[in-house]
Design a protein that fits this description.
With 189 residues, this protein is mostly helical. The protein is 66% helix and 0% strand. It contains 10 helices and no strands. The chain starts with 5 loop residues before the first helix and ends in a 5-residue tail after the last helix.
Amino acid sequence: MIGDGDDDVLDQLQSSDEHVRRVALESLALRSGSRDCSSYAAEVGQLLETDDNAEVRRAAARALASFGSSEASRQQVPGLLAAALRSGEEDKVRAASTRALGLVLASGGAGSGGGSASALANTVAAARRLQALAQDGSGEEVQLAAVEALASLGQAACLAPFFQFSVRKCLSVSCRGGGALAERTPRTP
């Protein structure tokens, strides 16, 4: 569906038909491996931020993830994805943006120079934001996406409070129910 010319791609991204926009975004994501599509980052980011259709915004997050690690978009794409993590957004869009942010940052998209101090600082800052997202009472899909993103960043230490809370909560629910775990767990006065 995507034509070879830049004008065709821009026309499809600006189409009034949501299906044309979504398919154009999916096509951009697929072909970004063989061609630099980062020149479309601003247009795709605009769709992620303002499109009325949640499926188009999800496709925009996936498209940004696919070309977010190119040299031309290392500074722009993480910010576009981070903006979609706001709490007013639909959970499916937030989850897609969270996963995409994890992929972009894990592939070196947090700043120029893969192992530079600024790239590391950006990754740590993003990890803190993802950690907060995993614990903020968001929908389950968003929390799982945040855990996936943290794991892809190699930030397992950020997951410790999340797991402690989840295990404590599961134990508490299980013990109240008098299940098999309650029978094996000694009670403390």
